[in-house]
Specification:
alpha/beta, Aspartate Aminotransferase, domain 2, two-stranded antiparallel sheet, 12 helices, DNA-binding transcription factor activity
């Protein structure tokens, strides 16, 4: 495992905090003092403090220095009021427990949920940007905003998607409070209780829960380990079943990681067009590519208006960002009605 020069002093501070030698609110030695004491460069010391801040052990106060922000006896970490758990579905509750990361040690990397690690999140950039916005907007940030989201944000998202070859009208974009909310509202715009929905198999269990919660019937469509969503199987299903919607993740499907080829995406669109089936496209992982070019979303090939796309900032910025985007051209009016119910 790679080691860093700053660990020579950060390990000491961490140990002193764990053993309660340093208490919450206590000021730490300055950058200059640590630089001299440990014979480090200013940048190494600064990186060390950044590391401690990201771990939640230290905080920075403007013009004052660095202070301890956590101690083992801190009530915010130790004393919790446990709410009674109402189990609607024992299996769903079990899945939630398995994918939750309650009180996990900060030094443990969690792979049980799709979220970037603390060291990957651009914390300093986010904090600086938030401070700039607060200074500029002030009390205006505390007012109600349009149900479909801020126009400037929708325009910026539209520009970003256009750079990847996916043209979206800002007026047809809607900002939601979560990917599952976007999915739930999208389903509500095109289906009725008892309708049939085609979903990937395997897929994220939360999608199955959302579908079941709306009283829908599920037909599982296999995900091939090389080509992804099995469109041929969907064709056979549509011959004898009235499928009202298809839900899938074409790019970096969870849990297989498969990316559908452009030809496969176009083939799926052709089938959807024949049977007039709305496609609900989950694009939350689309930006997590390692090649030179972002994989195309199905929406970029759609000229019929059958594709509803939703994406998220939680996978590439941080899971604490509750903002999601959704684009629903043909189904815009019923989606807006549904969004109003959620605020």
């Amino acid at each position: 495992m790679k080691s860093y020069k700053y660990e020579i002093f950060t390990s000491v501070i961490e140990e002193q905090i764990r053993k309660r030698i340093l208490s919450k609110g206590q000021r730490l030695p300055s950058v200059r003092v640590i630089k001299t004491q440990y014979n480090l460069s200013t940048s190494s010391v600064q990186s060390g403090f950044d590391h401690l801040m990201i771990k939640g052990l230290v905080e920075s106060r403007p013009s004052s220095g660095y202070f301890v922000s956590y101690t083992p006896e801190d009530n915010s970490f130790q004393t919790r009021v446990e709410m009674p758990l109402v189990v609607r579905d024992p299996e769903f509750a079990k899945n939630i427990m398995l994918t939750s990361a309650r009180n996990k040690p900060s030094e443990v990397s969690s792979f049980n949920s799709a979220a970037p690690g603390d060291l990957v999140i651009p914390q300093k950039l986010i904090l600086r940007t938030m401070q700039e916005v607060i200074r500029e907007k002030g009390a205006a940030l505390l007012r109600y905003y349009p149900s479909n989201g801020l126009q400037d944000l929708r325009k910026q998202i539209s520009k970003q998607m256009a750079s990847h070859g996916c043209l979206m009208n800002p007026d047809e974009l809607i900002i939601t409070d979560g990917a599952l909310q976007a999915l739930t509202i999208a389903l509500g715009a095109v289906i009725q209780p008892g309708d049939i929905v085609a979903v990937e198999s395997p897929c994220v269990f939360s999608i199955l829960e959302a579908v079941a919660n709306l009283g829908l019937k599920i037909i599982e469509i296999p995900v091939h380990y090389e080509t992804g969503f099995d469109t041929e199987y969907l064709k056979k299903v549509c011959v004898s079943n009235e499928v009202k919607a298809v839900i899938l993740t074409p790019n970096f499907q969870n849990p297989t990681g498969i990316v559908m080829s452009d030809d496969a995406k176009k083939e799926l669109l052709a089938v959807a067009s024949i049977y007039q089936i709305p496609i609900i496209e989950n694009e939350v992982y689309g930006d997590l590519y390692f090649g030179e070019k972002r994989p195309s979303c199905i929406r970029s090939f759609d000229h019929s208006g059958l594709v509803m796309t939703y994406s998220s900032f939680s996978k590439n910025t941080g899971p604490g960002y509750p903002f999601r985007l959704a684009e629903y051209r043909t189904f815009l009016f019923p989606f807006r009605k549904g969004k109003v119910c959620y605020g």
